[in-house]
Each structure stands twice: as structure tokens, then as C-alpha cells.
């Protein structure tokens, strides 16, 4: 079994889904420190004027060391209305808005107390739309005790992974020899962002999955797959079970 371990990002980018498509199971890393001004409560969408952030405000005053799973949404402002308005203006005329646009807006407008619950709901929403069926678990449910490379290894062992698919930055901090000692192969994702048709003007990369999906619908899967490869793998057969 090949697994990936990914933070439950906010309206993730394309590489996030490329990695999920290449594994049998994904563990959402919700028991690590929340990063302010990162991609845990904001991301980019394409607009007629260029791009803009969509953001869900969180309660972080005095909680700079809180874990992702403990971050509470600040519902004192109508952030849902701002995001859904931005999405409708940006994507309301795209070819596939009718295939889930209003459904997504309804999801966003629901009552969410924790950021991780909203993020996971959006991640699973697009997995469903793209036909990506994978097992998943929250790292917080695994009762881990480690950090850094040791945390990744501990998770791999708890879920009995045979291989771990890391992002390219894993080369900088993973202690591969430790994984090898337990018979776990370390693989690395190499994702080159694709260029595709957008509704508004010149192409802009690294938008949220919303941009690709509402412009290309189910065809988004092949666009993502065309730019993702894996290095460090001994046999192509190891990925044979990870299909959409």
C-alpha cells in the first residue's frame, strides 16, 4: 500500500490532487502547527481582473502554536457570502459551473466551527467530482507521538504502508534510511503545473482546484495526470492499484 501524508489545505491546488491520485490511502496531517498566511485558510482563484485570495478568517489571536485540528473559524463576519460571491462572479459562466458550483456554495455556506472540517469537506467534494475514490484518515486519530521525519515514519508504520509518496521537499528532511530499515520505500512526487484553458484572458497558474474543475469538469483528471510523475520507484506495478 502506498500512502501520502498531506496537510488538509484550503481549496487545494492541482498538485495536491495529483498526489492523492497516485496513492492508495491519504492521511491528512491535522496534528501539526497551523501556519498563518499559508494555504491552510486561504487560496487563489482566477477572476476577470487577474487573481484574488479567497479566505476563511480564523481565531488565532494568542494561539500561535495551535495545531490545525484546533483552529476555530471566526464566524463574526459574513466570510461565506464574500467567498460565494467571488466564486459566482469568477466561474458562473464557465462550462462546468452547473456541475457543482451552487452545490459548493451551499457547502461553504453551511455551519462550520473548525477550519479542518471545512477544508476536509471541500477536499472530499472535489475528490467526488473528479471521481477519485481513496481511503483517508486524520493523523490526529492515530495517536502519534513524534515530529518531523519521525512523525511521517510513525504514521507509515501505524497504517502499515509499504511505500510513502512525499513531495519534492521531502528530500531535504526525510531520514530515508529509517524508512528503509522498516521496509518502507520513499517515493517523490514531481509535478509540473499544466497550462489549460481559462475563462478569463491569459493563463495564470497555481490557482485552486476550483479554477481547473469549473473550466474543464471531469477532464480535469487527465490534465492533472499528464503533468505528474513519481521518482524513486522500483517498479511501475507499485502504482497499479492507484487509479481514479
Plain-language structure description:
The structure is a single chain. The protein is α/β, with parallel strands linked by helices. The protein is built from eight helices and ten strands. The chain has a six-stranded mixed β-sheet. Strands 3-4 form a two-stranded antiparallel ribbon. Strands 5-6 form a two-stranded antiparallel sheet. Helix 2 packs antiparallel against helix 3 (101-108). The protein is globular and about 55 Å long. 36% of the residues are buried.
How would you concisely characterize the structure shown here?
With 244 residues, this protein is α/β, with parallel strands linked by helices. Helices cover 31% and strands 18% of the residues.
User: What is the overall silhouette?
Assistant: globular
* Tally of individual helices: 8
Beta content comes to 15-25%
Termini separation comes to: 16 Å
**Mean of residue pLDDT?**
93
What share of the residues lie within helices?
25-40%
Low-confidence stretches: none
Order of helices and strands: EHEEEEEHHHEHEHEHHE
| Strand segment count | 10
Reported for the largest beta sheet, the result is: 6 strands, mixed
Structural class, from secondary structure content? Answer: alpha/beta
Rg result: 18 Å
Order of strands, widest sheet = 7-2-1-8-9-10
Amino acid at each position: 500500500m502506498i500512502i501520502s501524508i498531506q496537510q488538509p489545505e484550503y481549496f487545494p491546488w492541482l498538485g495536491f490532487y495529483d498526489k492523492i491520485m497516485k496513492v492508495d490511502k491519504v492521511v491528512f496531517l491535522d496534528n501539526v502547527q497551523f501556519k498563518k498566511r499559508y494555504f491552510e485558510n486561504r487560496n487563489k482563484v482566477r477572476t476577470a481582473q487577474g487573481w484574488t485570495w479567497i479566505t476563511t478568517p480564523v481565531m488565532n489571536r494568542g494561539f500561535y502554536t495551535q495545531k490545525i485540528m484546533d483552529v476555530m473559524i471566526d464566524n463574526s463576519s459574513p466570510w461565506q457570502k464574500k467567498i460565494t460571491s467571488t466564486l459566482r462572479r469568477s466561474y458562473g459562466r464557465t462550462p462546468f459551473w452547473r456541475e457543482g458550483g451552487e452545490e459548493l456554495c451551499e457547502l461553504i455556506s453551511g455551519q462550520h466551527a473548525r477550519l479542518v472540517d471545512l477544508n476536509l469537506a471541500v477536499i472530499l467534494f472535489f475528490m467526488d467530482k473528479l471521481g477519485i475514490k481513496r481511503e483517508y484518515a486524520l493523523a490526529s486519530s492515530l495517536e502519534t507521538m513524534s515530529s518531523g521525519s519521525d512523525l511521517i515514519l510513525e504514521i507509515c508504520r501505524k497504517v502499515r504502508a509499504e511505500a510513502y509518496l512525499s513531495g519534492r521537499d521531502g528530500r531535504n528532511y526525510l531520514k530515508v534510511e529509517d524508512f528503509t530499515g522498516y521496509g518502507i520505500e520513499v517515493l517523490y512526487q514531481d509535478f509540473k503545473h499544466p497550462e489549460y484553458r481559462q475563462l478569463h484572458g491569459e493563463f495564470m497558474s497555481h490557482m485552486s482546484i476550483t479554477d481547473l474543475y469549473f473550466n474543464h469538469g471531469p477532464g480535469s483528471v487527465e490534465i492533472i495526470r499528464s503533468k505528474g510523475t513519481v521518482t524513486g520507484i522500483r517498479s511501475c506495478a507499485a502504482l497499479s492499484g492507484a487509479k481514479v
